[in-house]
Structure of CRISPR-associated helicase Cas3:
Amino acid sequence: MMAKKWDAPDESVWGKSRGLSPGLPPYPLIRHLLDAAAMALHLWDAYLSENQRARIADGMGLAGELERARNVVGLCAGLHDIGKLSGFQFCSLHGSQYLSAELGDSRREMTADRFGHDVAGLQVVQEVLADLGFAADAELKVAERLAEIVGGHHGRYHRVENSVAPAFLGGPAWARQRTAHAAAVHELLGAPEVPGVFKAPAAVLVTGVVILADWLVSQEDYLRGRQQRLEPVLTDHFERSLKDAPGLLVVAGLARVRLQRKGFSEAYGIQGAPNPLQLSVMEELRQAVGEGRRGGIVLVTAAPGDGKSETALEAERVLSERFGTRGYAFLLPTMATSDQMYGRVAKALLRQAGENAGLTLVHSMAWLNSAYADDDLETQGVLTCDGDEVGERRLRAEADMRPQRWLRGSKRPLLAQFSVGTVDQALMAVLPVRHNALRLLALSGKTFIVDEAHAYDPYMQVLLGRLLNWLGAYGVPVVLLSATMPASVSDRLIKEYLQGAGHKKRELSRRSFNAPYPGWLYVDGESGRETSISCARRHEQMHARSMELDIAVEPVVHGRGGGSQARLAVMERVLKPVSEGEGGTALVVCNTVGDAQDTYLQLRQRFDQRSHEEGGTVQLLHARFPGDVREARTREVTEGLGREGPRPVRRIVVATQVVEQSLDLDADIVISDLAPLSLLLQRAGRCWRHENHWTAHGYPGDRGRPAWASGPRLVVLDPIAGGGKTPEQWGEVYSEHLLATTSRAIAGIEGGTISIPGDVQELVEAVHGDNPDFDWNSPGASEVKAWTVHKGKETAERSMAGLLAIPRARSVSALHDLHDLPGEEDEWEVSTRLGADSVRLLCAYVQEDGRVTLDAEGEQPLPQATSDGKMPVSSVREVMRRTIPVRADWLKEADPGSVARPESWAEHPMLGELRVLRQFVEGGSGRPVKVGAKLLWLDKDLGLVRK
């Protein structure tokens, strides 16, 4: 490349204006570009994992030339706002008044049409790079990729052919300044050469780095300080930016911490030695990984209560050392299970000197969790836009939506070194939403752990498979945990990962990946070689956790009538030993909230007149409690039936599906409504869960099992047995085909006993596995219809997910493929789960004097926002913690006045979306509100009731 002298960058061209000191000139664009380039270099050095750096370099054809790849990343960040050298400069009166005469006088010639500066940048980057001397065919192709990255730095990729009006870009003076700005960045970076290739997956990661660098150096406090003390020359400014970058990373909570790895018992606070499954991972997985270079996937299978979570963390220790990842993302099915796992992970990190490590709880309501105290909820403004694509309302939304410290802000929590949350947050990475590249960056640097991998419907399984495909392309080590996953599902997920890693679909179709149960299967990403737990360790695990589960099927009748087979009559009979003599603990799992509420009332009346709130024997837990109540009840239930105790003398917990995954409960007996077999086994996993541990180390408080509890027992209340039918109130909670198949399967269990773990996989396959030999002539037309409906729904869900998800990693040619569905820009426009839309409902109380309060007692007035929609963080939290997710169609026929939010909330980004159920207070409690054909009210003991 020939050396050439360029114009000096005109520092009257501004990069940041809004939110800065109005008495000073705006922050010069060239300075912001250099800030971003410096931060990108530091992110490469200190934030990216070894694995990420290798994948980016590989994607540029620069394997082994990491320094060259690093400089290209810096160049991408240094050019990200080049599109602001355009009509963008006139979108701020304060900014444009400082423009030099040569540029300012051209305003009349430039179009008044408004275009995004990201799209302008996409259009001009190739021309700018050509001016710098990148003219060879290969260089021009790579320049097009750099243009896509620049165009995508606001989180959404655009088509290269998208264009802005030439008048928006300005005349020759503007073009010269674009080249001058780019040349200054290029020179200070050491004049990096563009690579010969730039593959799409690598470019996606680089986009994530550019977005993150831009956000970090666009923080309001930082920009105000730099604005007031500009270094006289750009070289000094760049040096200062390089020195500032580490501090910004630390303050943001993104600095990496090296854990002081402890032994198993010390790391996890577990009394006793690791079990055979955990020992196998600690010893044999290391050998299986060997000298692998491109990641691998581990599937861990074991019965509930076998310590899969600790097994996963030990696998992470092995995999991260081999594949150069830093930290992990631990994803679970629900917010409740995520909340509990967050506490466990936090303790494990503290025991290993990880107190300064970034650890985040990642789900939509995470900031309301009590783990985040009010004094942590600070807002740090990030000035990422200045008027061309985002209006005032959106800017307020980005400031208010997540009022936590930097790392807890919107879309950022996955960037932490360690994160625990719902799998939905990860699945957003493969949906066509804004900033999906940032999510892929966040996930690709960590070991990826998915708990309860069997718990997702076909729609979510396809999205999970698509994400595994991208992680396979990035060489990310993956750990999948499951107690009841059909082989067909695990086989598909492993093949998606391997296809992403570069294995041909045709070759994979000839293979089958079957994990031993219990045990683990490891498949190397590069070679496709598979290794599994040794037979000796597997047999040790089977012996150590061997349990004979007694399954008693009780035919029941729902609703009125039924006599001795009435559901509640059967339940009372089964629970009688708990209420008498020595007592004991029982877990009753219902399929709907309504059933749980009715069951709780009946059992409370029968066994203990005291309510849950009054410390009664019978407790109730489901998803339709206000958030703060649900969190408290989950904690109370978990402590009462947990490993450490204290163990209650008598306790009957009535719950819904919220207890069947990842909650660490142990009951003397489990009673469950009929559910698909895999879920029945999950529920049964809450029975005698800690028996082996207590046998070895003693029962909490020396209170052992009651005499009537001679072994683990699952009682299934089956409305289908004996020719019955599925209760109408269950609706479409579960597939009729799966319920009928499960009913037949458990009725046919020889001796009424399941051997755990020996019989588990066979039973799961019989009900949930692919069954090409389905007999269309048996057992009857109704079953054929149910099977057809089940398979049709499954196929439709898979097809819908396949259409919505972004392409597989190796199928992407142009980066706009990641946003190729018109209108699907923001996260609330797509869903990671199928089902009825939900809204959040706040139950408020109208007092006799007309005041509306948060409490029935009338002591907490409903907070009101100021005229601009703002409200103190503590007030927002107070409101949101009391909300309940409900189906949107419940409120369709509601009188608008009965569920309308306060007018002052309309502009608030969170409160503006709420529905407020106004209950008139009578006798100290709220009266039911007629909503359509139903009555709706919040009962302090029952939660939200709908009758």
Notes: The chain is about 40% helix and 15% strand. The first strand starts at residue 14 and ends at 16.
